[in-house]
Amino acid sequence: MSARTIITVVGIGAIAGLLMGSDTAHALRVGGHAAIVPSSIDGCTSTAYAAITNNCGSTTTYTIPLPVGTSGSKAVGFRGLGATEANDVECRGQAMNDAHTGYWATSWTSMPEFGSVQDVSMGSLYVGGDGAAYMRCKVDDGASLLTVEWAE
User: What distance in Å separates the CA atoms of residue 123 and residue 14, rounded to the nearest whole number?
Assistant: First the structure.
């Protein structure tokens, strides 16, 4: 086989690989400020850059929709910040199928340490066919939810 033929075959293979895409999952991340904030706590919830901080005097639960394009298991996690155990962030992933006849959820998962940003893995969340997924996060007073992350 000539060098020109080899280069042509390799080039065609590379182009085909690019056009076909990849099956490798990639992580998607949105800031905590993407949370749905009820009007009753809007005045005591602050946002800075991507983070949402609870200054309401008690634990508040926020819901963050997670756009998903395919069904299957998704690795989920979050980043939180709290000075002490009294400033915890605890999240759980939840999903359902399009007919609302199937429901899946992870366990509630808290930050393992305090005083610095914590990157918390929550395991896998199954999303049913054409379903929807979201994160529910309980954020203690003075704590911040920085981001939520999931694999697509």
Answer: 34
Query: How many Å apart are CA 23 and CA 4, to the nearest integer?
Result: 31
Question: Residue 96: which of 138, 125, 121, 64 has the closest Cα?
Answer: 125
Please, which residues have CB within 8 angstroms of residue 133's CB and are 6 or more apart in sequence? 65, 66, 68, 74, 93, 94, 95, 125, 127, 150
Record the pTM: 0.78
Domain ranges in the chain are 25-151
Options 2.60.120.260, 3.60.15.10, 1.10.10.60, 3.40.980.10; CATH for 25-151 is 2.60.120.260
94-151 confidence digits (pLDDT tens): 999 888 899 999 999 999 999 999 999 999 999 998 889 999 999 999 999 999 998 8
Contact indicator for 149, 27 with CB cutoff of 8 Å: yes
N-terminal to C-terminal alpha carbon distance within the chain:
41
The tens digit of pLDDT for each residue in 7-31 reads 333 333 333 333 333 333 556 666 6
DSSP one-letter code for 40: G
